[in-house]
Amino acid sequence: MPYSNEEKSAGIYTVTGDILPIQVIDTRRLSPEENLWLRDLDNRLDAAETDRITAKIYKLEKAVQIGAYLDADVIEWLQSGGAGYQTRMNAILREAMLHSVS
Predict the structure, then answer these.
(1) How many other C-beta atoms are found inside a 10 Å radius of the C-beta of residue 16?
(2) How many other C-beta atoms are found inside a 10 Å radius of the C-beta of residue 11?
(3) From CA 79, how far away is CA 73, in angstroms rounded?
(4) Contact present, 10 and 29 (Cβ < 8 Å)
């Protein structure tokens, strides 16, 4: 799906074409009142919120559970990064898929 960019209002853009739409804000174009409101926002999510969003994305993507045999050292390497090794494995495979030459 191609990406598209739409300016919703002065300095506020919505980028679509990925799993979730992204909002980009150019604070240089916002009014002083809008900048004051944004000052208190942050982009930190706790683990529970991250897990909730990840689960929602899986449902959107209609993830399929499979069984696979992988080399032990590959699994050890994936698991060495902590929780979420299956998500990392999927990201690695997706990156390879997107960059493959047919």
Answers:
(1) 13
(2) 16
(3) 10
(4) yes
Phi/psi at 54 (5° precision): -60, -45
Per the structure block, which two tokens stand in for 52? 């909730």
Tokens of 100: 């493959």
Q: DSSP states of 45-78 as a string?
A: --HHHHHHHHHHHHHHHT---------HHHHHHH
Residues 73-101 pLDDT 10s: 999 999 998 888 888 998 899 888 888 86
Amino acid (1-letter code) at residue 93: L
CA–CA separation, 55 vs 84, rounded Å?
12
Tokens of 12: 């506020």
Q: Report which secondary-structure segment, H or E, holds 16.
A: strand 12-16
**Taking the model in full, what pTM does it have?**
0.40
d(CA 79, CA 89): 10
Q: Is 87 helix (H, G, I), strand (E, B) or coil?
A: helix
Count of residues in the chain: 102
